[in-house]
């Protein structure tokens, strides 16, 4: 799982008094778990004439197996986490 | 913070023996902390003729104050989390 625990402040220290402990977790999460991790920054450059037509659907959830294109993986991510992310769609005029 | 703790399994239960407790946290993180959270899915549709010229820089980190455009906020996110996300750039031909 691609997240980093920045600090775990726990109230575990001396809890003879209470049966339950409170654990405060501050997570600072990476949003890209696995795509091109050897690159310092994953930026993609596309020329407008090279865009897939009539629709170019680009992933913004970092879970597509066809990244940078969307393969629908955002649906699973949203379901699992309650998130609401989705793709960017560039529409080209269709031929007449 | 936009993450969901799915389960916190803690070894806190009976720890008279040990001074330190192990807390296993499985976090399932939302990647969009705050953008258009009232929408079930944030998809954006752009017609190719409406793309900003000569470069359209689109956010994929969900932290831009100009979303769906990139405002450079990915730099802070990457620094804070060790992540490596960046924008999608659509380049239009420049006028001659
Ligand atoms: S697969 Fe990532 S936005 Fe659709
Ligand atoms: S601000 Fe989000 S990718 Fe640049």
UniProtKB/TrEMBL annotation, chains A, B:
<dbReference type="InterPro" id="IPR018967">
    <property type="entry name" value="FeS-contain_CDGSH-typ"/>
</dbReference>
<dbReference type="GO" id="GO:0046872">
    <property type="term" value="F:metal ion binding"/>
</dbReference>
<dbReference type="GO" id="GO:0010506">
    <property type="term" value="P:regulation of autophagy"/>
</dbReference>
<dbReference type="GO" id="GO:0047801">
    <property type="term" value="F:L-cysteine transaminase activity"/>
</dbReference>
<keyword id="KW-0411">Iron-sulfur</keyword>
<keyword id="KW-0408">Iron</keyword>
<keyword id="KW-0479">Metal-binding</keyword>
<dbReference type="GO" id="GO:0006879">
    <property type="term" value="P:intracellular iron ion homeostasis"/>
</dbReference>
<dbReference type="InterPro" id="IPR042216">
    <property type="entry name" value="MitoNEET_CISD"/>
</dbReference>
<feature type="domain" description="Iron-binding zinc finger CDGSH type">
    <location>
        <begin position="41"/>
        <end position="80"/>
    </location>
</feature>
<keyword id="KW-0001">2Fe-2S</keyword>
<dbReference type="InterPro" id="IPR045131">
    <property type="entry name" value="CISD1/2"/>
</dbReference>
<dbReference type="GO" id="GO:0005741">
    <property type="term" value="C:mitochondrial outer membrane"/>
</dbReference>
<dbReference type="GO" id="GO:0051537">
    <property type="term" value="F:2 iron, 2 sulfur cluster binding"/>
</dbReference>
<protein>
    <recommendedName>
        <fullName>Iron-binding zinc finger CDGSH type domain-containing protein</fullName>
    </recommendedName>
</protein>
<dbReference type="Pfam" id="PF09360">
    <property type="entry name" value="zf-CDGSH"/>
</dbReference>
